[in-house]
Amino acid sequence: MAAALWTAACYSSNYARTMSANVGLLSDMSDKLADYCRTDFRIDDRQISSEEMGEFYYAFNKASAFSSSTPREVPRESHKDFIKMLNAYERFVHAADAYRLRGQPDPAMLASLMSQHDVMKLLAGKVIEDLRTEHR
């Protein structure tokens, strides 16, 4: 019985730790993408390439794979809010990539992208708060 409780505690702790890492990854990548948007996808005198955009899609795929690997956690608020965050991140990346491909500044589009970034930050905070609540 004690071994089963210890295993469950370790699994729960591992879930929280891995969830926090994935939230941090998406949040950090969202910050980086927002910075790219603000500079019209330019570093020095060069345009950010499609290959460089791959890191944002990789982060999504990594976080999505984590989410898919935790079916027992689906009822948790942290998991539900993480799915919302993951979906918001995916929309943000696609919208930002479309903005990059347009190749010209658009204040309205930039404002929309910054709003999407703000949503990402709020959702990240919500997932972390969920994890704290679940851990009590």
Q: What's the main sheet like?
A: 2 strands, antiparallel
> What is the count of structural domains?
1
* CATH C-level category: Mainly Alpha
Distance between the termini: 22 Å
Number of helices: 4
> Do you know the CATH topology?
Four Helix Bundle (Hemerythrin (Met), subunit A)
Strand order of the largest sheet: 1-2
Fraction in helix:
over 70%
Report on this model:
Helix content is 82%, strand content 3%. It is mostly helical. The protein has one domain: Alpha-catenin/vinculin-like (Four Helix Bundle (Hemerythrin (Met), subunit A), Up-down Bundle). A hairpin with a 2-residue loop joins strand 1 and strand 2. Helix 1 runs antiparallel to helix 2, helix 1 runs antiparallel to helix 4 and helix 3 runs antiparallel to helix 4. The chain is elongated and about 50 Å long.
Give the SSE layout.
Elements: H1 2-38, E1 42-43, E2 46-47, H2 50-68, H3 77-102, H4 107-135
Antiparallel strand pairs: 1-2
Short overview:
By secondary structure, this protein is an all-alpha fold.
